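Repro case for the chain-ordering regression, as requested:
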Amino acid sequence: MRLWVLPKEQVVDMVCRLMADYRVWGPQAKGPQFAFEPLPDPTAIRLDYNISILSPKVALQPPQERIAVFHLDGGFTVEPVIDAEPTVIFGIHTCDLHALALLDKAFSADFPDAHYLERRQQTLLVSLECLQPCDEHSFCKSMGTWTADSGYDLHLMDLGDAYGVSVGTAAGEALLTQYAQARPATDTEAQQLHEARDAKRLRFPNRLNFDAAELPSLLATAYDHPIWAELGDRCLSCGACTNVCPTCYCFNVIDSPELSLKEAVRWRRWDSCQLDEFARVASGENFREARAARQRHRMFRKGKWLYERFGELGCVGCGRCIRACLTHINIVDTFNAIHASQHRR
Amino acid sequence: MTAGSKKQEKPKVAFFDFASCEGCQLTVVDSLQTHLDLLDAVEIVNFREAATLNGWDFDIAFVEGSITRPHDEERLRRIREQAKVLVALGACADTGCVNALKNLLPPEEVRRYVYGEHADWYETYGARPLSAVVKVDAVIPGCPIDREEFVEVVKALLVGKRPPIPDYPVCVECKLKGNVCIFHVGGICMGPVARAGCGAICPTYGDGCEGCRGIIPHPNENAMKEVLDEAGLSVDDMMHYFRMFNAYREVGVGQWE
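-- result from build under test --
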């Protein structure tokens, strides 16, 4: 793998040049927190961010988008709306990078999703290695997402005055040579990069008390565990956990006619399995009416079902759901509690 | 709308009001600034606040305001008899809104406070939403209503669909906007139990939600009370938050029976 060095003061220049040809999304300050949004100007980028409120998936699967327009005037025609443009997502932490790899699989499987895939096709990913855990809620090390060897076009790692840059793809290399004044790393710098990555291992705790690879089999025997009722009692059904989750991809589809009734727009909007009506079907039956059943569903998606479907766990350990939950429902504590109770038996 | 059907007559629409600030009707007028095509889609036959029209031949009645006097009921029933579709316009009509705060207090005290020595001259009873008196077909929640939602409801009625009023909480829209959670910056917010549809406008501008659109159908009130307790609210203060816009839900008409 070819390594480059990008002096830190060059980052804003690079972003500035990129903005001429791409829409550039990056982490920015939002009050006391951070948000991934299109950069209004290159200096707004905050690569020192801890974690963003929503994950960078917002650039590829927007919370709400038009997906089709119907014309009803003299016949019936449908026109798909594919809203994609050349995009760079800059500064993605590795937990979120792993999550995007899962979304790529989810949106490619069964019925490939043209809206997501067309945007993904036109998007380059510049990731950023964390050298410190972002806070007490992240558990990326347990989920194996605390670093990344692939999935990016470029990958940055802080070396003090400069970023060490790993090139993941030819497109990434082109980005680096055309938009940045980077230079190849010296052997010493390459060594420094490897050492920094090794050194961070000790700084990241394992919060899961067991190997995450055991999650699918652990949950297989936990469907009737009493913990779901406990979570159900605490859950507000506000959907915060799934809306901030970098791997959740469920959406609802809403048709809205124009007042003329000659046109209609089909929207899609993020949906959440935690909401009352999510599992209500046309006959009126709601097959996950209890909050406990909905929380169990979420935990099973993260720890078992997505693994069975896509070969990867549905949780990347970013900890967003834990931070967002006002009643302190904690996926790590939940998995640990199930593990502990199974172990006792 | 079925394809090839002959051009139908525009539905006749009327606006009425009871105890309210009329701000929701004002929002309707305001919505014409961005949706002038509303006037092509319907025929307005009665709209005291905006026009000198007083027709009683209408299909859809939008009714603002709470019912606060026995003789209001008679007029509301007349509207109901005439309307094919009756829509509660705004929080006063939908939930009783702040009008129902008086239901928390002893009737005599309220009457003396408002009307002084002439209290006996005035007819008044416990404030109630329209649905306490007549069947309501659809609601547009909020204090005031959201003008985009008003337009969406009109569209739904035009095609004969149930208006798409969210039954999930404000937190959903707030998260979709990527907002900083009000609780994370030391504030108080009813977002986890309050009905969405406003685009989380208050939290988006840094204020906690006060639940003006009513409470969702199945709120986890115990969990919400724990959240408010952790945020430092006393039980009294919690009650204020639950009651400010939703007193009728909490106590009905109280001692005004």
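Ordering looks correct now. Strands of chain B lie at 12-17, 43-47, 60-64, 85-89, 138-140.
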